[in-house]
Amino acid sequence: MKPKPDPRLQRSRAALAVLAGPTVPCNNDLLAGNFVDDGKKLWLIDYEYSGNNDPFFELGNTWTETQLDDDHLDELVTAYLGHHSPESIARTRLQATVSRYGWSLWGYIQGATSDQDFDFHGWGQERYDAAVEDFRSPQFGRLLDTAAGSRP
After folding, report:
1. Tens of pLDDT along 81-101?
2. Other CB atoms within 10 Å distance of the CB of residue 73
3. Residue 151: pLDDT over 70
4. In whole angstroms, what is the distance from residue 95 CA to residue 84 CA?
5. Where would you tag: which of 87, 88, 92, 103 has the fewest CB atoms within 10 A of its CB?
6. Which helix (H) or strand (E) element contains residue 126?
7. How far is 97 from 93, CA to CA, in rounded Å?
8. How far is it, in rounded angstroms, from Cα 15 to Cα 87?
């Protein structure tokens, strides 16, 4: 029997599809450790998961993995676009939740298969717990509406 997808994840997917734009080249793994500053130049490393993707996934994944606050999310998206866009900020926030959910699965798989001395399961659990908190947040419905282009 095929498992049923989480309805909150499905709602996120549907909202993100409404104003979806073209995909762009993305690293798809911009953790803080994948930014290297040598004092003269900023380097992005680790392109194992790179490929075309929604640019707002890249921004949302970066925002959540670097543990920035909501004001920094607004700054990040506004700087990327060159103007303020509530729809794009909400889209990025939803993509951050999708990122947390996806990386939790990666962490569980690594925990079950990797020989590395690292608590991948715990790492994945942190992301899963954060995604569940996002899904249960009173803001979740508003994020879905705003990301889909309808604001209250």
Report:
1. 999 999 999 999 999 999 999
2. 20
3. no
4. 18
5. 87
6. helix 120-136
7. 7
8. 11
Q: What share of residues in the chain are helix, strand, coil (percent, to 5)?
A: 60, 10, 30
Of 128, 130, 129, 134, residue with least CA distance to 147: 134
Q: What type of residue sits at position 104?
A: S
Question: Which residue from 68, 65, 57, 58 is spatially nearest to 94, judged by alpha carbons?
Answer: 57
Segment 6-35 shows an average pLDDT of: 88
Could you tell me which of 67, 58, 68, 53 has the C-alpha nearest to residue 22?
53
Residue 91, both tokens: 């889209």
CA–CA separation, 4 and 44 (whole Å): 37
Tell me which residue has tokens 């920094």. Answer: 72
CA angle 50, 21, 130 (to 5 degrees): 60
